[in-house]
Write a structure and sequence with these properties.
Elements: E1 2-4, E2 8-11, H1 20-42, H2 46-58, H3 64-67, H4 74-90, H5 96-111, H6 123-132, E3 136-140, H7 145-153, E4 168-169, H8 179-189, E5 196-200, H9 203-211, E6 215-219, E7 235-236, E8 242-244, E9 273-275
Parallel strand pairs: 1-8, 2-3, 2-5, 3-4, 5-6, 6-7
Antiparallel strand pairs: 1-9
Helix pairs in contact: 1-4, 1-5, 2-5, 5-7, 8-9
């Protein structure tokens, strides 16, 4: 059991709130199945063009036109894009253009209920408890923020978006294994970093978050990859094992000096995370 006294909880999605197998066996195959049709039907759409520009920039080209090498035949262009997308998916790439395009393809799948997002049984009641305790709940995914909204708006237990108040971070704020990304997220929370608990199944992400000052916990779900035993982080197998405890604020005392020092602005109770065995 983990006891946490902070005010914000940041959640990874794949392997933490939801099964890796669902992403791998349902969502990714849907993209592969619908890719050709989506490109053909939406080729001239603004949304698709934005995703294609990002794909080109991820390939270090200035524009989609440059990346295509002057090719103008629509069928050949679509095949070029298709081949690149399949290649990136085979490599499990986390690039922005790919993730944005995947989100566009998933959108009708979620809307038509061809895809219903999996969440673990413990997630919904835990989010309720944490929200009732006054926690600010947010997600951070290598997928697009739009895809995260689709995901939590269409889960097997219904619409869960209201838990997150529209706060879904993606790699536009930075890569998940980079410390600076978590510094930016902490600034966006408007709280001290140690008052944010980041939960993920990836130790390298926890490394980056802890260096930024966040409190962290490793989530070990049944279908997650094995991690080194010496990772050094508190472990959970269910969100039931996270208990939020809000510490009472310090009493406000009058300041005899008209000048407020920088250090005094942060003189709040320390956040703690404590592990204890379950009774």
């Amino acid at each position: 059991m983990i006891e946490f006294s902070g005010t914000g909880i940041l959640l990874d999605i794949e392997g933490t709130t939801s099964s890796i197998d669902f992403i791998k066996d349902t969502m990714f195959p849907f993209v592969r199945k619908e890719l050709d049709t989506y490109l053909r039907v939406n080729w001239d759409s603004e949304e698709l063009n934005e995703a294609l520009e990002l794909i080109a920039k991820d390939r270090r080209s200035q524009s989609f036109a440059e990346w295509c090498g002057g090719q103008s035949d629509k069928d050949k262009l679509q095949k070029l894009v298709r081949d690149e997308v399949i290649k990136l998916m085979d490599e499990d790439a986390k690039e922005r253009g790919l993730k944005q395009l995947q989100g566009l393809i998933w959108k009708p799948g979620f809307k038509n209920k061809e895809i219903i997002a999996h969440v673990y049984d413990d997630v919904f009641p835990a989010l309720q408890d944490w929200q009732n305790a006054g926690c600010d709940l947010r997600t951070y995914s290598s997928g697009s923020s739009d895809a995260a909204k689709l995901f939590f708006g269409h889960t097997r237990v219904g619409d869960m978006l209201y838990f997150f108040n529209n706060h879904h971070y993606d790699t536009t704020i930075g890569l998940k294994k980079e410390t600076e990304s978590y510094r930016k997220i902490a600034e966006n929370f408007h709280v001290s970093p140690n008052k944010i608990l980041f939960v993920s199944d990836v130790p390298e992400e926890l490394d980056a978050a802890s260096k930024a000052g966040l409190t962290v916990a490793l989530c070990k779900r049944p279908d997650n990859r094995n991690v080194p035993k010496e990772h050094g982080y508190p472990e959970i197998t269910s969100f039931e094992q996270i208990e939020v405890r809000r510490m009472a604020p310090s009493p406000i005392r009058p300041n005899p000096s008209p000048t407020v020092s920088v250090s005094s602005a942060y003189s709040q109770p320390k956040t703690f995370i404590r592990t204890r065995s379950r009774a």
